[in-house]
Structures are given as structure tokens and as C-alpha cells.
Amino acid sequence: MFEKVLVANRGEIAVRIIRACKELNIRTVAVYSEVDANSMHVQMADEAICIGPAASSDSYLRIDRLISAAEITDVDAIHPGYGFLSENSHFAEVCESCNIRFIGPSSRAMNALSDKAVSRALAKKAGVETPPGSEGTVENEKDALVVAKKIGYPVMIKAVAGGGGRGMRIAHNDVSLVKGYHTARSEAEKCFGNSGVYIEKFIENPHHIEIQILGDNKGRIIHLGERDCSVQRRNQKLIEESPSPLLEHKFRKLRDKIGKAAVRIAEAARYTNAGTVEFIVDDNGNYYFLEVNKRIQVEHPVTEEVTGIDLVRYQIELAMGEPLRHSQGDIEIKGHAIECRINAEDPFGDFRPSPGRIEMYYQPGGRGVRVDTHAYAGYSIPPTYDSMIGKLIVKGADRREAIDRMNRALNEFMITGVKTTIGFQQAIMQDPNFRRGVYSTNFVEQFLGGARYELIEEKT
């Protein structure tokens, strides 16, 4: 049993990890940048250490400062959360060399899935289809043009590292390819410290389906069903749900195939702890592997709600060497869950971030409603980091009940002082196509451009 865990992150995921540790009677250490001194995770942890100024490159991304904080406070393990260093194999290796347990996949598993291009090769060996594309990274724009000509436009330029929609561009011709290639490389270098990109065929009207996996140190791996993350803007997820309406109503036989494919890929990488295997599915029911997210996901609560399994607690137990407590046959999906990411963004202004001080904050409650957040009245959202205020998760007996419950909960959510996406997401809950489950990753663009789009005014 761990006695003390350092949480190498901030915001709502740091709060989420601290709560799981408290339920396991594990003491916690929070790290924070100077601008996060009044953040909720700092107040909740048993100890807290400042690790640098606001810029993440000088604080949350500094391995030396994190390890120093861990050694000073004598922790047993580090939980990286998501983002920042959560998928950095070198960080995991440093933790291991310092006799500090890394709560996540082993550095070996991370290296087997070291970037998205390497992951594609591993998926092919596991017998899982990938979209046509480059063999590994593309080193210059000349090679990029050769690949695009071979597979045909449109193509997707994608960073080999990181996630969250950063370092990704769609190109429909040579001009946009060259521009997108350099933009994606620059963005990837800035966000992930790795400018590598690869190119793959862009699938028209794709559905984004991902599978939650868990693996123990004995080599056993299971999956916990799928999440549908197709409601995105600029490749960043806005709304997630489980189970997927596409697999539930149109391609039900595909569910078992994709789940088994995810497990095969994880087994090929000798994966441990929690992770997510991402796929795209086209309108004909063909599915293609995208990548493995080697960490806990932002949208993990929807899986928790439909399976009844605490994924963060499971992560900690698996890192302690505990075996899986569930077999594949134990996993049962009950009801329907939806998550809305509540962001400090201006839907009237092209979703620009809206940092600032939250004047009033009231979150919804009632049956089947959960809010994961670090925000409170008086909290100032810094412009330095992701604009997410929190996550609103609801569960219903079926999808219709879940949508109606989400609509009600969004209507109750009151935040003033900053712009938020609450009204925008409430409008989506009332959209006929969304309610029928008829949507793909281009849904938001179509929704914003449609005559029926009327943003629900936020409460003031």
C-alpha cells in the first residue's frame, strides 16, 4: 500500500486523484505553479510545494523539480494525471530509477507505443487496420507532398506526440498541405517538445470511438466498453457518451470486434495500468486504429458511471502491483452516461478562451448528476493553461433520459464573470440530430453553420 502520492498535475484531474487517494487512506502532495497558489488541489492535499512560475515549461513540465518535490516529501508514487508529462516515457523511467512508482503504464509499454507513428506499426502487426498514410514521421514538406499524392486528398497531418487536437491539420490540396505541415510541426514543438508529424488519409464523416482498457502486471488486459467522442471542435472533444449510439443502433456487431482489437493492441505492447485505444469508424462500418492514449482520459467518468468501476482508484491499485479484480465477463454496461466539458470560452467569439475571475458559481445536483471541477466562486482562471472549468456528467436509464437530465443540469449550472460553453452545449442537447444519435466529427461545424443554431443565452 502506498503511504503518500505526489500529484504531478493541476485543475480538476488533480482534485480527482486526491479524492481517490483519500478514499484509500493515502496522503497526498500537490505541486503548483505560482499562478495556481489558490487552486483547489493545493487546498485539498496534505502537503503542497511550489515548483515554479506560471509557464508550464518552467513548472509542470520540469521533471527535475517534480522529482525534487517527490524526494523532499518522501512519496511512494507519482500520479501524472493527463496532459503535461503523463505520456512521457522518460519521466516514467526517471521515476523508476528513483524508486518512485509511476501510476500509469510502464516505461517499457510507453516506449512500445512511443508515438502515434510507432503505434500504427504495432497495430498493423496486431492485425488491426489503420488509415493509409506515411511510414513513420515525415521529415520535410517535399516528402509530405509525395505521401499526399500517393494516398490522395484530403489528408490529416498529425503530431506523433501529445493529444488534445494540437499539432493536427487537415489539408485538401498542395498549398494547404505545405502550410498545415509547418503549422502542425510548430504547434507540436511548442506543446509537446516534439515537432515530429506523420500523414494519413482523412476519413470523411468519421465517428470517433475509443475503448477503455486496464492491464495488470501479470499480463491480463480487459476493456470496459466504448466511448463516443465524435462531438468535437478543431479536434478537441466537447461532449462524450457511453455507450456509443452508432454502435448501439447501427453497427452493434462491431462493438465486440473493436473491443477485441483494442485488447490485441494492448497485449502487443504488454500494456499495464489504464489507457485508451482510439479508433475511427466510417459510415460503412469500417474501423481504423488511430492511437493509444497512455494515461487516464478527461472523459473517463462516463465509463465509470456505466460500469460502476472507479478507474483512478484502479490505477493506483494496479500501480501497487494488485491484479485485476475483474475479468472480461464481469464487465457489464448499465444505463447511459454523457459528459459535457465546461470550458471558459466564448461561443459567440469563435470559442476564444475567456480567462478571468469567476464571480458566481453554482453547480447542478440531483439524481444522476456529477460535477468534476476545481472551480469555485472567486477563483481566477489563468490564461496560461487549458480553459476547462470542469466536467458535467450525467447518467440515465437510457440515452433519452441522459440527454434530458443533461439538459436540465446545464440549465441549473450558473457561472458568471467569464464566458462559458454552457449555453452552447444546452443547444446541442436540444438538437434533433444529436438526440437521434446521428452525428460524426463534423457535427459541430454543421451545427454552427445551420439555420437552426440559436445559442441559449447564459444566465447573468
Describe the structure in brief.
Helices cover 34% and strands 25% of the residues. The protein contains 16 helices and 22 strands.
Q: How does this model look, in words?
A:
By secondary structure, this protein is of the alpha+beta class. The chain folds into three domains: 4-103, 3-Layer(aba) Sandwich (Rossmann fold); 132-201, ATP-grasp fold, A domain (Dna Ligase, domain 1), CATH 3.30.1490; 207-449, 2-Layer Sandwich (D-amino Acid Aminotransferase, Chain A, domain 1). The chain has helices at residues 11-23, 40-44, 63-73, 89-97, 107-112, 116-125, 141-151, 174-192, 245-249, 254-268, 300-307, 311-319, 399-412, 422-429, 432-436, 443-449, and strands at residues 4-7, 27-33, 47-52, 77-79, 101-102, 155-159, 168-171, 197-201, 207-215, 221-233, 236-242, 273-281, 287-293, 336-343, 345-346, 352-353, 356-357, 360-362, 369-373, 380-381, 388-396, 414-416. The strands form six sheets. Strands 13-12-9-10-11-14-21-19 form an eight-stranded antiparallel beta sheet, sandwiched between helices. Helix 7 (141-151) crosses helix 8 (174-192) and helix 13 runs antiparallel to helix 14. The termini are far apart.
Average pLDDT taken over every residue? 94
CATH superfamily name of the largest domain?
ATP-grasp fold, B domain
| Count of structural domains | 3
Low-confidence stretches: 456-460
CATH architecture of the largest domain: 2-Layer Sandwich
Rough shape?
globular
- Assembly category: single chain
Q: Write down the Rg.
A: 21 Å
Strand order of the main beta sheet, please? 13-12-9-10-11-14-21-19
Distance between the termini: 48 Å
